[in-house]
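Hello forum,

I keep getting stuck at the same step: I have a sequence, I want structure tokens, and every attempt I make locally crashes halfway through. Rather than fight my setup again tonight, could one of you with a working pipeline run this one for me? It's a single chain of 160 residues.
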Amino acid sequence: MNTLIVLRHAKAAHVPGLADRERPLTDRGERDAERAGETLRRLGLSPELVLCSPSIRTRRTAELALAGLASEAPVHVETEIYEAYPDELLELIGRTDGEVSTLLLVGHNPGVHELVLNLSLTHDDEGFPPGAFAVLETGPWADLGPGDGRVVGRWTPKGH
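Reply #2:
Ran it on my machine without issues. Output:
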């Protein structure tokens, strides 16, 4: 069994004139990202690899979550995560080395939320707010498709 952690970037600022990819986290976003990592640590989850969108807000979310986890997992910045559809995220995950058993994907909505729904074949309406994560048990990365994941945990900054 593999474990996929899908994390949406934490709350980002809207700065007039700043490109979307350059948006920083808010103070709350900074705290929430670190809390997400601390929560993953308490759950006993530690990624061996992180796939992260190139935006400032996702890279900072990954950095703070890993600090909260006390993890030094390598972070691969993948340009294709930015504005990706679920099938594109699945394709990227599918290229992950089979030796990796716990993977953290840090990205954006709606792609990350739809990925979780697609893998688990659920139709929840809870949404996936900034800083939220879902933990899924899956089979081999190369074989993942719709219905091949089971959500075993969810966390949101407000709802815990």
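The CA atoms of residues 21 and 55 lie 4 Å apart. If your local run keeps crashing, start a new thread with the error log.
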